[in-house]
Amino acid sequence: MLVHIKEIVGKAQKGHYAVGAFNIHNLESVLGVAQAAVRAGSPAIIQVSEGAIKYMGIKPITHIVSTVAKNVAAGVPIALHLDHGNSFDAVFECIKAGFSSVHIDASSLPLDENIALTKSVVEIARSKNVWVQGEVGAIMGGHGQVSGRLEHIPVAKVSEVIRFVEETRVDTIAAAVGTAHGVFDNEDIRMDLLKEIKQKTKIPFVLHGGSGVDAQKIKESIKHGVNIINIGTEIKLAFSETLKKTCAENPNETDPRNLLRPTIKAVEEAVYAQMRLFGSCGRYGEGDVET
Ligand code: G3H
Ligand code: ZN
């Protein structure tokens, strides 16, 4: 069922687990996330980037996600969120379309400008009952990148994160704490920063760049108060590697459904594994959780 993100995140805060926010790119990845949520009895946040909106169109995305949530995932809650919105206009389009949460990512601007733009988004979003995620300290890398080590992974200044949260009154906060977008060998989670941010801001913390991060570190970060974990690259990899393999093994196949069907299952498996790691399984019904 489609719900407001606050219902999912509020329950995760009380239960001390994290909810996965999964980047989708097409119908197959939406179905894969929904199937994993049903199988796990888990909540899920389905998130789209501006790139995914350009590819599918805002109305098709909104309708596909709400229809799949209602019909495929009737027993578990699914929320729709904009990931890394870069401008007021991009965010406003999603608020109008019915998203319950939007991310305004002005982290590449000087702090004062980031605060000013984020505040303007919070003002309009509040009046429409939409949650806003803000970001301090840009997160390095790129969605879908898988390549060795990043030369340097910068982290946010805790004092700036605290000032940002106090002045903007965002509902959730993302900050650079050692992870990167993509899969890199030297990704880390600075627990000291996370603990301090969490103690001083209290609001739900969103961990970006969840793909490729050591599982034990993810578990520890949840203990320190991470409530939402973004997963993008692992979904891209599950989809594209499966599609390439299926095409290579079936060069004469002409039915798109036969080529694409295995990608749905591959996304489901990747998402299900993350849900188990995040502790969100069995929170809505028992699900079919492997032990
Ligand atoms: O905003 C999306 C995420 O932060 C995804 O990061 O591609 O490393 O999973 P990832
Ligand atoms: Zn991100």
TrEMBL record:
Keywords: Metal-binding, Zinc. Pfam families: F_bP_aldolase. GO terms for biological process: carbohydrate metabolic process. Binds 2 Zn(2+) ions per subunit. One is catalytic and the other provides a structural contribution. Gene3D superfamilies: Aldolase class I. The active site is at 83 (proton donor). Coiled coil: none annotated. Its cofactor is Zn(2+). GO terms for molecular function: aldehyde-lyase activity; zinc ion binding. CDD domains: TBP_aldolase_IIB (cd00947). Dihydroxyacetone phosphate binds at residues 182, 209-211, 230-233. SUPFAM superfamilies: Aldolase. Zn(2+) 1 binds at residues 84, 181, 208. Zn(2+) 2 binds at residues 105, 135. This is Tagatose-bisphosphate aldolase.
